[in-house]
Specification:
The protein is built from 14 helices and 10 strands. The termini are far apart. It has a 7-stranded mixed beta sheet, sandwiched between helices. Helices cover 53% and strands 13% of the residues.
């Protein structure tokens, strides 16, 4: 009681408000546990396809100036233990030697074919058109779209096909491990990826009752050919920069079986290698994912400020005050609450980072990731206004 009497009314109100924020932050651990229990985790130990007649799977890889990564991607696909597949690489007007690398691989393996795209028609985005052209050459009953910067465990396709056929899934998309090599990749990529999942909660994505909750990740999309044709294929999303999200939406809207699973044990991706690429690439992803409507981006910006920026501001501000000798019950309690808040955040993100095999020690630089993410959102909101 004496402690309360030493503080003004507005200080008590501020502490009460911060206490509510802390309770909400703690509840996010419960939400995380709830979602984790309902997600499918696919690993090399998951059941594999073991039936006598294996449907042909056409694996399609769009490649534009991917000379640095395309061979490693193809080698991982060639090594799949699934018994019946073909690999089609569509070279989308590359200026490097992507086509030559693919041709060399194809000359030694008749399962690999190279398709070339020389012109982008009006009204299409590049990757969407490339995959539209590629699928016309595919013979498979199932289609697998993977990016050229991905690599896959030998069990990947076999595990994915078994999961689809056992559970009646017509489109399966995986969230792979993040192959981060530079400082900025290791600091920023896991946090930004988590923010995307905040916008598109996977429990909602995987809930058939949520007709407007569809989502897919173009780094790995396995879809039944009849389902792909039924939603209009890539032609139905020809003007979309992130065609994968919109394909997932169309599958969900059509009432077909859609699942997004955690595939960090059987697939990995290196998306961007520099800070500039990270900011530019993720701005484009968020821009198209919200259909150019900034409303969700404003909400996410505010969410990050409350749950990630606020503890840093409290710790820095009141910590500096105490160092300068300005000490009061309000300042001490606020500082302690800020430390608790940040501890809650760090332990929460440690759990989410583990799902993508991200290095936990880079959580020490999470404050950098937070401010890069806010810059990405600022840039994306501006793009929504200027297009």
């Amino acid at each position: 009681m004496a402690l309360l009497e030493s503080m003004s009314v507005w200080q008590i109100v501020l502490l009460a408000a911060y206490g509510i924020i802390l309770l909400v932050a703690l509840s996010r651990h419960w939400v995380c546990s709830y979602q984790m229990r309902r997600l499918k985790f696919l690993t090399p130990a998951s059941p594999r396809y073991d039936r006598s007649a294996a449907p042909l799977v056409s694996i399609m890889v769009p490649a534009k100036d991917e000379a640095a990564s395309i061979e490693a991607c193809l080698r991982s696909l060639q090594a799949q233990d699934y018994p019946n597949f073909e690999i089609l690489v569509v070279d989308d007007r590359s200026q490097d030697n992507t086509a030559e690398i693919v041709s060399s691989v194809a000359s030694a393996d008749d399962r690999v074919r190279l398709i070339k795209v020389d012109v982008l028609p009006p009204g299409w985005t590049g990757k969407t058109h490339a995959l539209h052209v590629c699928q016309k050459h595919a013979r498979g009953e199932w289609l697998l779209f993977v990016d050229a910067d991905t690599q896959h465990d030998p069990t990947c396709l076999s595990v994915a096909m078994r999961d689809c056929l056992d559970d009646g899934i017509e489109m399966l998309s995986l969230l792979p491990a993040l192959d981060s090599r530079s400082f900025w990749e290791r600091v920023v990529q896991p946090f930004v990826g988590t923010c995307l999942v905040i916008l598109f909660p996977l429990t909602r994505v995987n809930n058939p009752a949520c007709k407007n909750g569809g989502f897919a990740n173009g780094q790995f999309i396995l879809v039944k050919r009849s389902t792909y044709n039924g939603i209009g294929g890539h032609e139905a999303v020809r003007d979309k920069f992130v065609e994968d999200v919109h394909l997932g939406r169309k599958v969900r809207e059509s009432g077909r079986g859609l699942r997004v699973a955690i595939g960090a044990g059987i697939s990995k991706v290196r998306m961007y290698s520099s800070l500039e690429q990270i900011i530019r690439g993720w701005s484009r992803i968020f821009y198209s994912a919200v259909d150019f409507n900034p409303r969700k981006l404003y909400w996410l910006f505010a969410f990050i400020c409350v749950f990630s920026v606020l503890p840093y501001a409290v710790i820095a501000g009141y910590g500096a005050a105490m160092i300068c000798g300005v000490v009061s019950p309000f300042i001490v309690i606020s500082f302690a609450m800020g430390v608790v808040h940040e501890t809650v955040q760090l332990t929460l993100y440690a759990r989410t980072y583990a799902t993508t095999k991200s290095r936990l020690r880079y959580l020490a630089f999470r404050w950098l990731a937070v401010f890069v993410m806010l810059n990405i959102l600022r840039r994306t909101i501006s793009m929504c206004s200027t297009h």
